[in-house]
Specification:
By secondary structure, this protein is of the alpha/beta class. It is 36% helix and 20% strand.
């Protein structure tokens, strides 16, 4: 099994998840706050989540796995469906001794995080859902494929250097299967019943998400423990393209502080909290 490239301040370990050798990247230094576990999207490894994970290492230990079948982790005979990926996340918790964590998911990582929060609520302190795609806005599949293609031209070109090798390794048939399952997951509607404190982050240039009017409509219906934020200028892979702004929003939310634009990166983008009705 190929080893990941060493990175200063990070280590990695291999764990067994139902007989599948699974890679987890682990930050070496951090505070004693609740650990943060980053959950990647469909067809891609955890590598593209690293820009945001690096920004959060001063707070606590960060874990960035390649779920079974993704990246450098071993593949099962067929891609694991979202509920099985949630089970795999909890196995990762158990193997690494993580009693409770904050989940930071992107794209398909949002449905996986929602499943973990719903079914293993006592293991989750909070959830950050970045670009929670899925549901009627991404149906039929032909519409979702067009949305994905549009997002490709909206992302920074640097994203392709990470995403393309991962998608090739995952395979086009597996990618289509998982993409289909993600588009059928009603992520926005599940926000209305999620049982743990939740931060939902939307990029206003994300073609896989509904328009601002629908986002505002959902935001005004969510329970009091859900916060909805829009990052202006971001598309779908916010964790890769806007790590400073996203890490600032996450840190502010975890600290119970007012969520405003990142003072360390002024002018790069703007952050808007959508109020409830």
């Amino acid at each position: 099994m190929r080893e990941p490239r060493p990175e200063p301040g990070w280590d990695h370990t291999w764990i067994d998840v139902d007989g599948l050798r699974t890679l987890v990247r682990i930050s070496l230094d951090g505070g004693d706050a609740t650990p943060i576990v980053h959950v990647h999207g469909f067809g891609i490894s955890g590598r593209y989540l690293m820009p945001t994970a690096r920004r959060l290492t001063g707070r606590t230990t960060n874990f960035v796995p390649d779920l079974p079948g993704y990246g450098l982790s071993r593949k099962p005979p067929r891609p694991l469906p979202i509920p099985r990926l949630a089970d795999a996340m909890v196995t990762i918790f158990d193997e690494l001794g993580i009693e409770k964590a904050v989940l930071v998911g992107n794209s398909m990582g949002c449905p996986v995080s929602i499943e973990v929060a719903d079914r293993f609520t006592d293991r989750v302190e909070g959830v950050v859902l970045v670009a929670p795609a899925g549901g009627i806005n991404n149906q039929p599949l032909t519409r979702a494929v067009k949305q994905l293609a549009l997002d490709g031209v909206r992302e920074t070109p640097r994203m392709a250097r990470v995403a393309v090798p991962d998608y090739v390794r995952f395979g086009p048939i597996n990618t289509l299967r998982l993409f289909t399952e993600m588009t059928e997951f009603p992520a926005l509607e599940r926000l209305l019943a999620i049982p743990v404190p939740t931060l939902a982050v939307f990029g206003n240039r994300d073609p896989l998400l509904p328009g601002q009017e629908r986002v505002v409509e959902i935001a005004q219906q969510v329970p009091g423990h859900v916060t909805v934020v829009t990052i202006t200028g971001a598309a779908h892979a916010v964790n890769f393209s806007h790590p400073g702004e996203l890490a600032h929003v996450i840190t502010s939310w975890l600290d119970g502080a007012e969520i405003v634009d990142d003072p360390d990166e002024p002018g790069l983008t703007s952050v808007m909290v959508i109020p409830r009705a």
